[in-house]
Amino acid sequence: MNYNYLGYNEDKQVVKGTVAASSQEAAGQLLAHDGYRVLSLKPVATFTPNWEQLFPSLYRVKPASIVMLSRQLALLLESGIDIVTSLELLRGQESNRTLRRVLEEIVADLRSGHRLSAALDRHPEIFPPVYRRSLSVGEQTGGLETVLRQVADHMERENTTAKEVKGALRYPAIVAVVAVIVIGVLVTFVLPAFTDLYSSLGAELPLLTRMLLDAVDGLQQYGLYLMAAAAGVIVAALTYVKTPAGRYQWHRLLLRLPLMGRVIQLDELARCCRNMSLLFRAGLPLPEIMSLVVQGSNNRVLAKALSDVREDMLKGEGMSQPMAKNPIFLPLMVQMVKVGEETGNLDDTLLSVAQGFETEAEDKTQSLVELIQPAMTLIIGLVVAFIALSMFSAMYSVYGQMA
Q1: What percent of the chain has pLDDT over 90?
Q2: Contact (Cβ atoms closer than 8 angstroms) between residue 43 and residue 1
Q3: Rounded-to-integer distance, Cα 288 and Cα 276, Å
Q4: E strand or H helix at 41, and its extent?
Q5: According to the model, what pLDDT value does residue 295 have?
Q6: Is residue 110 within 8 Å of 87, Cβ to Cβ?
Q7: Are 248 and 304 in contact, with CB atoms under 8 Å apart?
Q8: Full-model pTM
Q9: Residues 182 and 132 in one domain
Q10: Is residue 379 situated within a structural domain?
Q11: Stretch among 28-37, 80-89, 130-139 having the lowest mean pLDDT
Q12: Mean pLDDT score of the chain, rounded to an integer?
């Protein structure tokens, strides 16, 4: 936010201008740091709409931007440049409006005496909990550059996996949309023309054709009611899913889906193992690691299971033994965690488990996509064949009756 200030400098000269800061207190501290005695400090009144709040998806900061920022910041710090100057350089070359504003606020907080991790905590919508906590540990241990590279590698891997899944499902989604449009055109425009023709001829139609035409008439008469009912069910379901109990049940259903449930479970466990490995290498204690992993989990069922594991850990049961009680943790993960506990190499074993689960998830996703494509082709072919067979059988029946 911008603030208009009025004051005087060390030479007793009156100065005024505008300064950007995250808060009025931060703006005052920033001006004091520059040697100004502030007489008046007021926020700049603006009547322009906040487009970031109106259209947040247009100004969203992508994970790839955070990855690039982390790598560049690590490189600048390794070159001997202080963190404030490094962030100012990165802010000057940043093209994303939201990230540029956030970097500006972080620089203002750092100049006010805040630590980097504290400044990042003010922007949880951009920097995830694992990222912020890892950098906090890096500040304390003096290995901020190393931690920045580690979290960048971690986020890059997650981003790559998400892109691969979306790319694999893009083609089946396009085919499904095209199929719905084609069938909709046939039902809306083609079939009514045949219906009028057959009605004018007064011919008796075959059973298959009558079934199809009755279905089309039903859709035309009650289509709006069916759409309204479907919309009501969807709204009610979405409203329920937004509740804690509804989200838990939805995530539980996803894990039980045939074929896809296994892929979701592998993806979630792989992310969990990678987060634990990263935080363990950063030097955090296991109870705190488990708390952060719970916060970073996208699946409420897994988050509940991890919370239970943490509670049992605090009772002195270790990690592998509580995991063995819950079937959501696959046997390979439980066994490898046990080996890591016994050998003291928990970070390496967790990383190996994550890599194994990611490979299996990729293979299963590819197999699922390869299965979806012929299945969709078969379904679309059957629907089109049913419509075509109904029309041709009706035509032959009419010709036979007219002959």
Answers
A1: 14
A2: yes
A3: 10
A4: strand 37-43
A5: 81
A6: yes
A7: yes
A8: 0.65
A9: no
A10: yes
A11: 28-37
A12: 81
